[in-house]
Every structure is written in structure tokens, then in C-alpha cells.
Amino acid sequence: MPARVGESEGAYAPPGLQCWRLAVHTLFRRPVFDDTEAARAVSRLHGQPGPWGDSRCLAWVLMPESWQALVEVGPCDSLERLVQRFKTASARLVDPRQRINGWLWERGFDAQPLRPQGEREAARRLVLEPVRNGLAAAIGEYPYWSAIWLEEATKHPAAG
Predict the structure, then answer these.
(1) pLDDT average, residue stretch 147-156
(2) Looking at residue 160, what is its pLDDT?
(3) Is 16 exposed, middle or buried (0-12, 13-18, 19+ CB in 10 A)?
(4) Cβ atoms 111, 14 nearer than 8 A
(5) Beta-strand pair 56-63/109-113
(6) Cα separation values, 144 from 41, 119, 159, Å
(7) d(CA 136, CA 132)
(8) Which residues on neighbouring strands pair with residue 27, listed in sequence order?
(9) Which of 71, 90, 112, 141 could covalently link to 136 via disulfide, CB atoms 3.0 to 4.6 Å apart?
(10) Of the candidates 102, 107, 115, which has an alpha carbon nearest to the alpha carbon of residue 70?
(11) 28 or 2: whose pLDDT is higher?
(12) Pairing, β 145-147 against β 66-73
């Protein structure tokens, strides 16, 4: 079961590189990302360096009421700082009418450490969330997700 973490709880990630599965929910679990403009704006954020610091987002899926991701926390970063940077940057991109008193996200986040070398298996499970939740029949039909392995495959296609 994922642990619920408050942003002010100090360094949750141990030193070194640690991979985590995260879930961050919209305030009151409202389906903010049913709105195409909001979903596209936050999706584009994944290609920008600002929120990530020396950490990396390995895979992500934007559900109507949450952002779920696999992240690798860098040695000079903490899980709390990474999530806070993502929340701040993404909230600035979403139309103010989607926020409640300026807030887009709930306080805190859910975090679950991944077992060593378990990133790809966890990514497969993560990106299938829209299918499991009935948002698409197949992952290729759902537009708001990505994984670094997919991006690497398009940059370096296998010779054949």
C-alpha cells in the first residue's frame, strides 16, 4: 500500500538514486484533466527540464483526477521537492477556472518505492491505468502518457 506523504515531512528519499511510483490527486479529486487544454498543458510539462531538477520522470499517465508517475529521485533531490516543483509548475499551466481558491492539487501525495530493476514492469502497469479505468480500450488510444523507453525506441530504432 502506498504511503501518504506530506510535502513538509523532510527528505523521504534515501541518498542515491531511488525509484518511486507516485500519485498526486487533484483537489477534491475533481476530473480537471477531462478538459483537453488542461491535460495537454500538463502533458507538455514532461518535456521541460524545470520540474525535474536532477531527477527523472521515467513514465507518467495523466488521469482525469490525478497524475501518476514513476520517478527516479536524483542524489541532490528529494521526493518532496520534486513533487512540489511538479505541482507548482503544472498549476501555473492550468486555467485558473480549474482551480479552487488557487489550488489545483491536494496536499501531499502517495508514494511507493520500486524494487530494484522493477522500473519497466512498474511502467507497464502504470501506463495501463487508463485501460483498467475504462478511459480507453487500448493504451494507444489514450493520449496522456509516456515512458522513457518509448522515447528511446523512437530515437534509436532497431536495425532491421
Answers:
(1) 68
(2) 46
(3) exposed
(4) no
(5) unpaired
(6) 10, 19, 29
(7) 8
(8) none
(9) 141
(10) 115
(11) 28
(12) unpaired
SS3 39: helix
Q: Is it the case that residue 155 has pLDDT exceeding 90?
A: no
Of the candidates 17, 108, 86, the residue with the CA atom closest to the CA atom of residue 54 = 17
Instruction: Give me the half-sphere count of Cα atoms (radius 13 Å) on the Cβ side of residue 123.
Output: 18
Dihedral of alpha carbons 87, 79, 43, 106, sign: negative
Within a 10 A sphere around the Cβ of 98, how many other Cβ atoms?
17
- Return the amino acid letter for 76: C
Cell of 83: 513533487
* Calpha distance 90→43 (Å, rounded): 9
Lookup: cell for 105: 492539487
Name the percent of the chain in helix, strand, coil, to the closest 5. Answer: 40, 25, 40
Backbone angles phi, psi at 110, to 5 degrees: -95, 140
Number of H helices, E strands in the chain: 5, 6
Task: Report the distance separating Cα 132 and Cα 93, nearest Å.
Answer: 28
Chain centroid to CA 89: how far?
13
